[in-house]
Amino acid sequence: MNDYPNYWNNRVPSLSDYETFVAIVEAGSLTAASRRMNRSLQSVSRALANIERDTGANLVRRTTRSMQPTDAGLVFYGRIKEALSDIAAAHTEAAELTREIAGTLRIGSSTLFGPTYVVPTIAAFMRRHPAVAIQLVLEDSFQDLLKAELDLAIRIGELSDSRAMATRVGALRRVAFAAPEYLLKHGRPKVPGDLRAHCCVIRTLTKSPQRWTFESAGKPETIPVAACFSSDNAGACNEAVAEAVGIGIAPLWQIAGMLETGRVELILTEYEPPPTPVHVVWPQASLLPTRTRAFIDFLAARLRSGLRALR
């Protein structure tokens, strides 16, 4: 009598066995799976038997013409299919990481934030990876990433596109402000509700442009405001406020220069609006190109550091 167990009856299922099981479920028969896998019918049958023996479960229901997965087989198939995809992605990613980071990236940002905060980061990344070319698309509206053919974008404000992946990199302090000339002529609002009697400068690209939210006693307070001037461009709105057209709301960093020169001053500081979140977003994909993943990580780290200084 042979004291050694039979190898084929006791070996642990291999990666090839699991791939064969997936082929059996998807092809519907051993014969079709053997053709798909370019394996003999005997080896396909042996792979299935080995997996069922290892799991202790009947994974496939056999009939005279086809093979259908059992309930346990369907659950097993789903898990194995996902695992095999992850393994394939890992192989691809590992291969990508050994190559030089190269190619073209299209990046979206807003007209004011992009030149000030994104361009220096792009320049630093290009110095590190000289084989990368960058196309920066500046637009204050939230562009559809796929339609605009953007690899990634910086979004300032609440996100609404559930199809995009995102990582939050910080938040921007927002303030209400006005020109001294305007306040001298029309008076200084003491509470957010006083804005109902004032002219306001509206940014039309915001979600609810004529409803401004402040914080009062730790709770949000939304005030309807009347627009005497409106624009889809942040710079134009800020300049209109500085020219005493009306009262505005903006991220603090945008008007820092105007504050330093005295062209505008802050108002309602004890009711400061909630900060605006900043995200890096990119289209959903099973595997991002190495240059895209590398730039997202680089940009996120730089922005997190830079935005902390703006609080």
What key attributes describe this structure?
single chain; 311 residues; alpha/beta; Arc Repressor Mutant, subunit A; D-Maltodextrin-Binding Protein, domain 2; 5-stranded mixed sheet; 3-stranded antiparallel sheet; 10 helices; disordered N terminus; carbonate dehydratase activity; LysR_HTH_N; transcription; lyase
Q: How does the major sheet shape up? A: 5 strands, mixed
Please tell me the CATH architecture of the largest domain by its name.
Answer: 3-Layer(aba) Sandwich
CATH superfamily of the largest domain: Periplasmic binding protein-like II
Structural class: alpha/beta
Q: Which consecutive residue ranges, at least 5 long each, have pLDDT under 50?
A: 1-8
Shape: elongated
Range of strand content: 15-25%
The ordered string of helix (H) and strand (E) elements is HHHHEEHEHEEEEHEEEEHEHEEH
| Largest sheet: spatial strand order | 4-3-5-14-6
What is the count of β-strands? 14
Please tally the helical runs, counting DSSP H or I stretches of 4 or more residues.
Answer: 10
EC number: 4.2.1.1
Keywords: DNA-binding, Lyase, Plasmid, Transcription, Transcription regulation
Protein name: Transcriptional regulator, LysR family
GO molecular function: carbonate dehydratase activity; DNA-binding transcription factor activity; sequence-specific DNA binding
